[in-house]
Every structure is written in C-alpha cells, then in structure tokens.
Amino acid sequence: MSKLIHVAAAVIRDRRGRILIARRPDDKHQGGLWEFPGGKVEPGEPVADALARELHEELGIRVTSARPLILIPHHYPDKSVLLDVWDVDGFEGDAHGAEGQPVEWVRPEALDDYAFPAANAPIVAAARLPERLLITGAATSPDEYAERLQVALEQGMRQVMLRAKALSEDEFAGLYRSLLPLCQQKGAVLGVNAPVAQANALGAEHLHLTSERLQALVGRSEFNGRWLSASCHNVEQIRQAEQKGVDFITLSPVQATSSHPGEPVLGWAQFAEMVAECTLPVYALGGLSDDDLASARQHGAQGVAAISAWW
Predict the structure, then answer these.
(1) Are 115 and 57 part of one and the same domain?
(2) What is the CATH number of the domain that holds 284?
(3) Longest Cα separation, the chain
(4) How far apart (Å, rounded) are the C-alpha atoms in residues 230 and 246?
(5) CA-to-CA dists, residue 212 to 24, 208, 265, angstroms
(6) Number of helices and strands in the chain (H, E)
(7) Per-residue model confidence as pLDDT tens digits over 143-180
(8) How far apart are the C-alpha atoms of 287 and 284, rounded to whole Å?
(9) Cα separation, 180 vs 206, whole angstroms
(10) Do residues 21 and 35 both lie within one domain?
(11) What letters, b where the CB count within 10 A reaches 16 and e where it falls short, cover 96-117?
C-alpha cells in the first residue's frame, strides 16, 4: 500500500472578502510560486486541529470558524497525497508571515494574476466559486427572463447558467446580450449552456458543456473564456472532465426531480464516494435547494446547482 501524505490547507478570508496567500521560499520546491497556507496532518491528528496548528505557526492567527471546502487527491507510484482544503472565515490575530514568508491579501478574482503550483488550480477555482449555481428554466419572453433573473440576483445569486434549448441560435444570442448587463451590475457571472463555437462568438465568460459536448471536447484551449464546466453523471465522465481541463462540474441527479420522475438517483452516499476521488469543485444537482447546502458541503460538494429552487 502506498504511503498517504495528508496535507491541510486554508482559504482564509477577511471581513472584506479578500483571501490570504503566501509565497514559497525561492530555495524550496516550486519556490517563488504562491500557495494557500497549511501543512502536513500528523497521524491520528484531526484535520481541523492540524490546520489550526499550522496557521498559528505560519501566520500567528487563531482559527475561530472554518469548514471543509475541497479534497484533492493525487496518486503517485510510491505515495498518495490528499490535499484537504478548508474555508476559514473567522480568526483572531494579525495574519503575517511568521516564518518570514511574504503574504498578501487579494480579491478572489485577482487570484488568476498570481502563479500557483499546478496542483493548486482546483483550490483557486473553489476559492472563487460561490456555493449556489442557478440554471435558468423556462420563460415566455425576454422580459420574463429578465424579471426572473433580477429576482435571483437580488437574492444573492452570483453564478448563473443560461439554459434555453428551445431558442434558435440568434434568439439565444439576443437573450444572452440582454441579460448580461443585469449580471454585470451585480458582479455576477452569466454563463451559457451552448456549443463551444457559439460561446466563443458571444465572448462568454463561462461555458457549461453537456456530457455529450464534454465527450466531443478535445481540450481546454477550445474555449476562450474563464470558466469551463460540464455535466457529469458517472465516474467515466468525471475522469473526462479532469483530463480535458474543465474547471468544475455538476454531478447529478442526487435526488428525484419533477422533470425526470422515476429516473435512478445517486443519493448522498454515492455522490460522496464519487466526489472523493474527483480533483475538481463539484456542484450537487437534482432536486436540491438552499435547504440542502449543508448536506452538500458535508458530502464534499462546492455547493448546490438548481433550476426550480431559484427560478
């Protein structure tokens, strides 16, 4: 059996929503790159205790509020590394480089401007993504789309996927352009569920792929925007998403939905099992709402994606 190296890391947020990152010493492996603070978990040590110990040693702070964010497994021939990342939104003390390391507080959207180790890419994504992803449902007119979207934005929605399969390409493009300013005014991302070429033509910041489009995708470079996500329903599709450079996925159906009555569901136990070996942020999808956010987090999800709960 290969050796397991368990590492705890933290996405630390201050009251202004900024995130703390630290720069690795130049003489260390991957020196000069930025990282999220943390360190090794000792055998038998609770992860929360290890995280608190490391952050006190490295930054001089005492953690008062934290929750799991994402687990990232890496398997090598001789060892396995489990990066156990927590979201720390409460602490006491003045965070500083207690071991002489440079540290900076940065806005989540500015994380892309810093060079991180490749293994940290999913952490950067998880740190930037919200816990709710709205997928638009049906509407009778562009005005109704705008009205429904406005309500969701007022309720704090910050990641929206425009899904309107009944519209022609021109109608979809017109609707996207009419809704984009509403999202921009609230600092929300408006994505599209569409072919890659159409998303690029629109200049979309986020493209969500169906499982069929994921299979047809050659690689991440096909899409020009910041966020590329995909619908997954099984382990094979999850592996495809990882291999092709997708930023995050939805995994469904977790529970029964009114749109697909009688369809087999994953349930939380199988969902958690599939997420445990996934190296990407995962949104739980299928019959879920705000009431399921805590359960989703407990079972390894970034958060919840839904249509009817918020549309």
Answers:
(1) yes
(2) 3.20.20.70
(3) 61
(4) 7
(5) 41, 11, 20
(6) 9, 15
(7) 999 999 999 999 999 999 999 999 999 999 999 999 99
(8) 9
(9) 12
(10) yes
(11) eeeeebebeeeebeebeeeebe
In the prediction, which pLDDT does 2 show? 62
In a domain, 311, yes or no: no
> One-letter amino acid identity for 87?
D
Beta strands in the chain (DSSP E): 3-12, 19-23, 34-35, 38-40, 62-75, 79-92, 103-106, 132-135, 159-162, 189-193, 206-209, 227-232, 248-251, 282-285, 303-306
**Chain segment 184-236, per-residue pLDDT in tens:** 999 999 999 999 999 999 999 999 999 999 999 999 999 999 999 999 999 99
* Residue found under tokens 């839904």: 306
The CA-CA-CA angle for residues 120, 123, 125, to 5°, reads 115
Burial (CB count <10 Å: 0-12, 13-18, 19+), residue 214: buried
- pLDDT tens, position by position, 68-104: 999 998 877 777 889 999 999 999 999 999 999 999 9
